[in-house]
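Supplementary Data S3. Sequence and structure tokens for construct A.
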Amino acid sequence: MTVETIKTATKAAIGAIGGVDAAETITRVKRSVLSDYGNRNSPHVVPVDVAIDLDRCAQTPRILQAMAVAEGYTLLPIEVGEGCVAASMSAIAENAGRTISTALMAIADGVITRDEADAMLRELADLLRVVQHAQAAVMGERDRVASLPATLRGVA
């Protein structure tokens, strides 16, 4: 991932919040600086503390995920809590479809550009996050069922 990818993630987070005016109210920086953080023609990149503020308000770690992938890592939630297994499986299918679609579009012309590779890495990182959330949901369901009396688990 490149600085441009981090800028794209920053711009997306700011957009999810409602724009630079709204983002200004939850960060320590002014509107013009926030605009620079998403502008590919500006050398300024969002600092981590501001990225955390923006990601928290946007309710998804877009910027921090882009930063992690730039360093060869992915973000995983510390606690995903218990979730609905069906919803988790649906999210996997949706994300997998989007990941495959992004990859197919990238390889259609026989050449994968850096931007296309970055897009595939973003989709794969998001898919990994969704799969790990689903794993936690399934483990929670398994543990819930295991704690039931044998007669309720179908064991005679």
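Construct B, processed identically:
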Amino acid sequence: MEPVDQNSYWSSVILASLIFGVVYFALTIGTGYYVINHQPASVAMSPSSIIGTVVCLFAGFGGMLAVWHHVNEYEVTIQMGRGAVIGIITGLLIGVISFVLVHLWEYIDPNYTSRLMDVQIAIMNSKGNMTAEQQQKMADMMHNRGGMFQVLGALFTTIGLGILNLITGIIGAKIFKGDEAAIVE
């Protein structure tokens, strides 16, 4: 049996990714239901965009939590580069976990995505910037290619979470650098 690398950051990354991935998923689904259950005119001012931004910023602290956990669990100091690695991996995993959970949610509420797309189309229609023909083309495209848009959206979200957590991982490495006298060799 090989010795365990006590400086491995994977337990910290997985823990923070699971916590933030599940919370990010729950807040995303909650925001989706908020949008679905409100009239398009009231949503056109987009409180859901504000909520979505806050949720995304919240998920950005996963990298910092992973760094904090790693430093405290192993009583080590880490360089900013290692904080960046811990952060980006945490952010990417948060994106993957939330994407998988959203797709599992479709088994609980199979109409969730379709209803959300319908409301988004209604929001575009309420703005009045498009002709009826353009609105119908957009609606057809969203319903026919909804899966592609979901995957692309999830990809961009995951990349964004990776970058955001890379930054918070670096900040966490700077803040939680640990006690230099307690370096584990």
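The chain has one domain: 10-182. Residues 110 and 177 are 46 Å apart (CA to CA).
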